[in-house]
Amino acid sequence: MKKQSNRKQSKISKSIIFSMVFLVLGFILSYSYSLSQARDGGADYAADSQFEEEERIREELIEQQERNKTLREEMQAKQNELQEYESSFSDGEEVFSELAEEAEMLRRYTGLMPVEGEGLKVVLEDGEYGAQDVNPNEYIVHESHVFQVIHEMYISGAEAISVNGQRIHSNSTIVCTGPVIEVDGVQYPAPFIIEGIGNPEVLAASMELSGGVLDQLVNDNVIVTINQGVAISMPALLSES
């Protein structure tokens, strides 16, 4: 009986030991499998993360390239606009320069600015007469004679004209009252000095044309003296109040 009891106890002990061994082995195998899975899963997760990061960087790079392209196009458009502006500004400068020259010329013609330069001086004096039966009006300078000289100077290119130092303008009036001539309300006795700023040779040649103004004045008994190439200075007209 005792031997049988010892055998049973021995079998039970072995069974318990084997059970413990198998339990430990099972736990070890299970843990090893779990660890292996965790490692494999971590590797897959790392690989996925790296792929996603590469994709994100690639997308950002593509997006940046698109932005750079857009910026280059905008910069090119701005450069084109700048070139057009510079071109138009250059054209505008030329137009402005031409307008400024034209405006200055008009101011000179209208008497709004003082002028000086070379030109022609024409002096008209009353003719000499001695016979008592001669009409004195046929030997004195009239406004028509002054007008003839002024008109000839203008059509010959004179920029400015004065009579006895008084500037002539588009609305000037010249009236003969006996032995004097009234220019814009101011009276001047003979001799009458008519000066014109312009090309002296052209002005003189125009006056001395055969059958022209000089011949007509001489025929009217007017004494005429012509000096070309003289320096002439004229003030600006006073503003009308």
UniProtKB/TrEMBL annotation:
PROSITE patterns: S4. It comes from the Bacteria. InterPro entries: DUF881 (IPR010273). The chain crosses the membrane at residues 12-33. Keywords: Coiled coil, Membrane, RNA-binding, Transmembrane, Transmembrane helix. Residues 54-88 form a coiled coil. The keyword Phosphoprotein does not apply. Belongs to the UPF0749 family. This is DUF881 domain-containing protein. It comes from Metaplanococcus flavidus.
